[in-house]
Structures are given as C-alpha cells and as structure tokens.
Amino acid sequence: MRAALVVYSSSEDEEEEDGGRRGGGAQAASPASAGRPLLPVPAVLLGDPETEEAVRDDSSRHGGRVRCFPHERGSWATHVYLPCRAQEEFLELLELLVSHARTYVSSLAAMEEFHLSLSQCVVLRYHWINPFILSLKKHLAPFHRFFCMADQVKVYTNENKTRTFIGLEISTGHFQLLELVSEVDRVLEEFDLPTFYKDPSFHISLAWCVGDMSDRLEGQCLQELQDIVDRFEDSALLLRVQWEQIRCKSGNKYFSFPLR
C-alpha cells in the first residue's frame, strides 16, 4: 500500500507564502487600535537582535519573485501553515504534472517544499513574536489530528498577479480547516494583523511561475492535469493528507504546535 501524500514534517523553509484564493499578497500590519492598551515590551526584547543588514530587493536573486512588502529592519514576515512532506510516489506524480504543464508554460518550476496555508503572510514586529506564539499555542491547543483529500487541480494567482501557481485543492476536510483558520484569525486580530481570505480555497501548491499565466494553464491544460491525477496509480491513497501539527514561521524562527 502506498503511503499518504503528507506526514509530519520536521523542517520547513518557505521564503514566502504561496498564492491564496486567487490571491495571496502579504499585507503590512496596521497600527494598533486607539482604544486597545499596548502590552509592555519585555526588557530583553527592547534591543532588536536581528543581525541582518538592510537589504535591497533584487528579484533576480529569487527567480523573479517580487516582494509584496518592502524589507524593513525589525519587521518579520510571519506565516501560519500546515507542513507537508511528500512521499516518493507523490514526487513521481508531481514530475508528470509539471512536465505536462510546461508544454503550456515553459517557465513553470516545481515547488521544493509543500504546505497548506492557514494565514496570509503578515508583518510582525520582533518584540511581538513571543506574545503572538503564546497566543497561537493557547488557541490551537484543543485541536486533534485529522485527514483531508487533496485531489482537485486548480490554478491560482497571488493578489498582485506577479506569480501563478498550480495546486491541489482540498476536496474533503474543509470544515476542520475553517475551524483552524477561525482560531488563527482570532490571534491575528489581537495584533491588528490581516486575517485569512473569506471563503478560502485550501490547497497545496505544486508549481509556480512569474507573472499571470492563468489564461494559459486553465481550460484544456487544467483538464489534462486533472486527468493525470485521476489516472495515477492509487491516487486515492496517495492524496490522502494527514495533518499532525501546525507551524508558524516568523523570519528565520520556526514554532511547532502538535495536534492532539
């Protein structure tokens, strides 16, 4: 019997979030509400330990990808997600899909790591990281492990149409994912950060390219990709996703929240 698509992943290193429901542009944090008292900043965090020097954005260093918000010292890109680790059989399916899709868009690149987003990529000031993580831990503690099916091929673009993605949309398990997003949104609201998309299309991105190439990939290409998935041996087992933990990446820091 083939293994499921994803299992517990002990190491992830996404540089940025993938596209959301026809858009996944990151947004900067808004100022704190006037009526909300500010939490005291721990003394140990008053000095920003970030050692990186200010950088100049250069999309050529990142495959042509464009930042959705400028780099700013002391501001950390933060993302909550379900981590995935693909099995060998899934990588075989991925190779078939990307190879075929490249006959329509030659610049497509396969994703090297996989995840399902539970938040947008938001900007968090360094001294709010620990309070943010503690709040996430509290809100996510009651949740149990669960399964989904990721078997519907879809095309996505990020919010500013600078990147296009091919992904596998979740066809079952949507309710459990919405419950998780609801709790993550509560934490984001505590810090005046943008919440997740309304009516989200939960998915695992498989490949990406620069620019809006959705018109080339939808229609006939999309149907052919779905046929490849449907005909792939033991696809019903292969694309059964088991979620065992939630993770949060903030800058170069990773935090894990095991599901019960």
Key descriptive features of the protein:
single chain, 260 residues, alpha+beta, Cyclic Phosphodiesterase, Chain: A, five-stranded antiparallel sheet, 6 helices, 24% helix, 25% strand, globular
Put the structure in a nutshell.
Residues 27-37 have a biased composition (Low complexity). Residues 1-39 are annotated as: Disordered. This protein is α+β, with helices and mostly antiparallel strands and 260 residues long.
Specify the CATH class.
Alpha Beta
SSE topology string? EHEEEHEEHEHHHEEE
> What is the CA-atom radius of gyration, in angstroms?
19 Å
Number of strands: 10
Helix content: 10-25%
Query: How far is the N terminus from the C terminus?
Result: 26 Å
In DSSP terms (H or I, runs of 4 or more residues), the helix count works out at 6
Strand content: 25-35%
Assign the CATH architecture: Alpha-Beta Complex
CATH-assigned fold name? Cyclic Phosphodiesterase, Chain: A
**Largest sheet descriptor:** 5 strands, antiparallel
Keywords: Hydrolase, Lyase, Nuclease, Nucleus
GO cellular component, one term: nucleus
Catalytic activity: a 3'-end uridylyl-adenosine-RNA = a 3'-end 2',3'-cyclophospho-uridine-RNA + adenosine; a 3'-end uridylyl-uridine-RNA = a 3'-end 2',3'-cyclophospho-uridine-RNA + uridine
Region (Disordered): 1-39
What can you see in these coordinates?
- The chain is an alpha+beta fold.
- It has a single domain (76-258), classed as Cyclic phosphodiesterase (Cyclic Phosphodiesterase, Chain: A).
- It is 24% helix and 25% strand.
- It has helices at residues 88-101, 129-140, 174-190, 214-217, 220-231, 235-238, and strands spanning 75-84, 109-110, 114-117, 122-125, 146-157, 163-172, 203-210, 240-243, 245-250, 253-258.
- The strands form two sheets. Strands 1, 3, 4, 9 and 10 form a five-stranded antiparallel beta sheet that branches. A five-stranded antiparallel beta sheet has the order 2-7-6-5-8, with helices on both faces.
- The chain is globular, with a radius of gyration of 19 Å.
- Residues 1-39 are annotated as: Disordered.
- It comes from Nycticryphes semicollaris.
- This is U6 snRNA phosphodiesterase 1.
- InterPro entries: Usb1.
